[in-house]
Prior knowledge:
The protein is α+β, with helices and mostly antiparallel strands. The chain contains six helices and ten strands.
Amino acid sequence: MRFRVFAFSVALGSLLACDHNPAAPTSGPAMSAAAAQSASASPAATSAASSGRGRENVLVNMADACDPDSFNAIIGPGTCVRNGGMPFERFTTLLQQLGFVGPWHFAPNNANVVVGQTFVAENMGGEVHTFTEVSEFGGGIVPILNQLGGFGAPAHECTTLEDDDFVPPGGTYTEKVDHTGSVKFQCCIHPWMRLEATAK
C-alpha cells in the first residue's frame, strides 16, 4: 500500500514536471458541475448518518470519482477500480485551482455525536483512503498533493499510519468516540477529505 502511495507521488510529480499548463481558473458553470457531481457521488450518505441519538453507529461514506483509465495509466494498475469518473489531469487541475476536488469527500463532513458511539467509515469510491483521527487538520502523506492543494506539513497522525489504516474500495474502518469536544478525521492521502464532529 505504501508503495502505491509512493508511486502516486512520483507519477504525479513527473506529470507536472512535463510541459503541463493547467487551464485558466474554473468558471462558475464548471464549478457548479463539480459541486453537482460531488453531491451525487453518495446520495445515501446524508440519510445514513446518525443523528447522534443513543449509541447508534455514525455512518460515513468515503467517496471519490477517479477515472480508472487515466489514474491507472499514470499511477499504476489497480489504483482506481470504479467505473467512469474524472480524468487524472482534471483532478490535478482542480486541486491546484481550488485546493480541493469536490467528488473526493467524506459524507457527512460534520456530525453531533456522543461518547460511546462508533464511526463506521465505508469506502464507496474506487481508490484507497484513510479515515484518520487527527488532533489538527494538516497535509497528507503524498507530498505533491500537499503542494498542489497548499496543505503544508502532514498532520502528525498521518506520519504514524499502519497498514490497517488504509481502507480499500468496499472496505470499512471503525473508530469509537472516546472523548468529548471536537473530533476531527481526515484522509491522509487526500487531505481535503475531512469530517469534524462535536462529541458530548
